[in-house]
Write a structure and sequence with these properties.
Elements lengths: L1 E5 L5 H11 L2 E5 L3 H8 L10 H10 L3 E4 L7 E4 L14 H10 L7 E5 L7 H12 L14 E5 L9 H7 L2 E5 L2 H12 L6 E5 H32 L3 H8 L22 H8 L5 H25 L6 E5 L14 H12 L4 E5 L8 H4 L4 E3 L2 H7 L2 E4 L4 H5 L11 E4 L6
Parallel strand pairs: 1-2, 1-4, 2-3, 4-5, 5-6, 7-8, 9-10, 9-12, 10-11, 12-13
Antiparallel strand pairs: 6-7
Helix pairs in contact: 1-3, 4-5, 8-10, 8-11, 10-11, 11-12
Bound molecules: ligand SAJ.
Length: 413
């Protein structure tokens, strides 16, 4: 089939590449001209292991191309952002824009799959918008009108392992109708080796949110333990290692907070759908969101004793070995340190980027430096991301013993 993938971001582009490699002629659609040009050159505008090979191959074989306009296609995969707004609800504007672009192209019998992480009801919302523009179509054939098949198939791939997990993870496919779910299942079966489980759309939407909330709640438990241990003078990493010897205990790792566009966001979609009921989920978010502030307080307490403190902040990404700075606690910590300590010089180290993002570049006391330079000059070293480079670093050569070290990830214990 011809598949149009709307949105060539962290999820859309890998999905487009995998579909193009396995089963389909794929047209990627994006609003960003530089993304379109990069893809058409066979290049990937962000870091994700093995993705470039896949995109380059699909483009050179003529199975994948990118353009701005939404084309006619048999299948539409919508993988646009659903940004999180100040009131903790999702902004569905990009879904609406995708629907408005798809609607005029429909001839009947198309399958439209929403992959974007969505609050409960978003798939129905997408269908309603398509049908409002195209009252000549229907979901169930009433009045003899041609069918439109709409399903939700949340992506659940882990950044950094996207190309592996796209193929090996189980998939949940939720259809607004049974037929829509069946057709979506057939499409994913062309490349997905995991089990593909069908359900209704709202259960599929909720499943995705619940998976990420489960992880958020468990990370919050680890983060709360780290704060308790800080107070009691206990090494939290040793404690967790010991507790995890129990056959039914598997505590996650504390850190400087929870980042990324998913785990730090999705639980709020549940909270905003059921504010009075989602008490634990809300508290977990609050515990994790409080963590960056606690790290800032610890660094400030050390730095205040120095006249012109030099701080090396190791890592800006939201997790190890990726270049993704979205919702990153490390980035927020650096930014907050820069304003809390105007006389400090902060050398940020992020091996996966070439220049500081706009908000940090604007700060006069923050620079991007290689690891050795940053640490050599530093009074205080705060480790924020467990990048391989930092874990592998020769601690003696970095003379860490001579510095104040605040290791939020427990890699240099
Ligand atoms: N983190 C900790 N301690 C841990 C594990 C993670 O502090 O023990 C932090 C990380 O440093 C990071 C954040 O949590 O800041 C999230 O990282 P992650 O690796 O747990 O997850 P993401 O955001 O990269 O991807 C998650 C995954 N969801 C689950 O594992 C349930 C992925 O499968 C989803 O596809 C993705 O969200 C998504 O797109 O929803």
């Amino acid at each position: 089939p011809t598949v149009a993938v709307i949105g060539l971001g962290y999820i859309g582009l890998p999905t487009a590449a995998v579909l193009a490699t396995h089963a389909a002629d794929v047209i990627g659609v994006d609003v960003n001209a530089s993304t379109i040009e990069a893809v058409n050159r066979g290049e990937v505008p962000f870091v994700e292991p093995d993705l470039s090979v896949s995109v380059a191959g699909a483009v050179s074989q003529g199975r994948l191309r990118a353009q701005r306009e939404t084309p006619q296609a048999e299948v539409y995969v919508v993988a646009v952002p659903t940004p999180f707004q100040d009131d903790h609800t999702a902004d569905l504007a990009y879904i609406d824009a995708a629907a408005d672009a798809i609607a005029p192209q429909l001839r009947g019998d198309e399958l439209v799959i929403l992959e974007s992480t969505s609050p409960p009801g978003a798939t129905q919302h997408l269908a309603d918008r398509l049908l409002a523009a195209r009252p000549d179509l229907s979901l169930d054939g009433t009045g003899g009108r041609p069918l439109l098949h709409v399903a939700h198939c949340p992506e659940r791939v882990l950044p950094g392992r996207v190309m592996v997990e796209l193929v090996t993870n189980d998939r949940i496919v939720g259809g607004l109708t049974t037929e829509a779910a069946r057709r979506a299942k057939d499409l994913y079966a062309t490349f997905c080796q995991g089990e593909i489980v069908t359900t209704d759309a709202v259960t599929a939407e909720m499943a995705k949110l619940v998976e990420n909330s489960y992880r958020d709640v468990n990370i919050a438990f680890a983060n709360e333990l780290s704060v308790i241990c800080g107070k009691l003078g206990i090494d939290v990493w040793e404690l967790i290692e010991l507790a995890n010897h129990h056959p039914r205990v598997d505590i996650l790792q504390p850190g400087p907070g929870v980042g990324g566009h998913c785990i730090a966001v999705d639980p709020w979609f549940i909270v905003s759908s059921a504010p009075d009921e989602a008490r634990l989920i809300r508290t977990a978010r609050e515990v994790n969101d409080a963590k960056p502030g606690l790290v800032v307080d610890r660094v400030v307490a050390k730095a205040e004793r120095l006249r012109e403190p030099r701080i090396a902040a190791l890592g800006l990404a939201f997790k190890p070995d990726i270049d993704d700075l979205r919702e990153s606690p490390a980035r927020a910590i650096v930014s907050r340190l820069a304003s809390a300590l105007p006389s400090a010089k902060i050398a940020a180290v992020e091996p996966n980027i070439e220049s500081l993002p706009g908000d940090l570049a604007e700060l006069p006391n923050v620079t991007l430096e290689p690891l050795e330079e940053a640490v050599r000059e530093a009074d205080i070293v705060v480790l924020l991301v467990d990048h391989t480079q930092f874990k592998a670093a020769d601690r003696r050569r970095l003379r860490l013993r001579e510095k104040v070290v605040i290791d939020t990830r427990g890699v240099w214990r």
